[in-house]
Amino acid sequence: MNTYAHKDLLEAGLTDWRDLAQGLHARFATGDFAAGLRFVDAVGAAAEEAGHHPDVTLTYPQVDIALVSHDVGAITGRDVELAQRISAIAADQNIEARPADLVQVELALDTADIPGIGPFWAALLHGDTDSLQGGDVVGNARVPLLWFQDTDAHETPRQRFHLDVWVPAELAQERIEAALAAGGTMVDEEAAPAFVVLADAEGNRACVCTTER
């Protein structure tokens, strides 16, 4: 099954959608709960017809939708086709997409002993150790994904946790500049545009990440 990289998705013309850390994401500004319910009902019917089901979050002013092919752990043609169908439903219902509002946060923890500490974090965040899958703790969608960044063993105190803030690729530079203007400093931009490391005034670090390579 073919998978889609960032450049492939640009060519697919998915103007309502952005690829972040875990699949395709979109936010639709429904404006009120009743409109959101009608939209979600139509999306659900399209998903049933396609035999492919998105993650949908309905709140009063908006509907957030995420698509990924879990069986291959990537974005595939099934996701692209359903995303296009959902965008058509939104257009038919006069619902506007808000790609500039999209952001996804992951937690990263430096460790030299993933087998030693991974089960603890899996049990703490999700109640059991089954959610530890390789170097990630995954499960409840309300809990940010936690991934372990392999590092050399060390005793010197240092920051172990950092946030990965995933944004649409075209918004990354704007977000970086806003953080720098608000008192941050640039730590490392060698891997840009994939990720840039920033720090606050006390040296706490975070990464602004995109799927662009």
Automatic annotation (TrEMBL):
Keywords: Lyase. The keyword Lyase applies. SUPFAM superfamilies: PCD-like. It comes from the Bacteria. One of its GO terms (molecular function) is 4-alpha-hydroxytetrahydrobiopterin dehydratase activity. Gene3D superfamilies: 2,3-Dihydroxybiphenyl 1,2-Dioxygenase, domain 1 (3.10.180.10), Transcriptional coactivator/pterin dehydratase (3.30.1360.20). Belongs to the pterin-4-alpha-carbinolamine dehydratase family. This is Putative pterin-4-alpha-carbinolamine dehydratase. It comes from Ornithinimicrobium faecis.
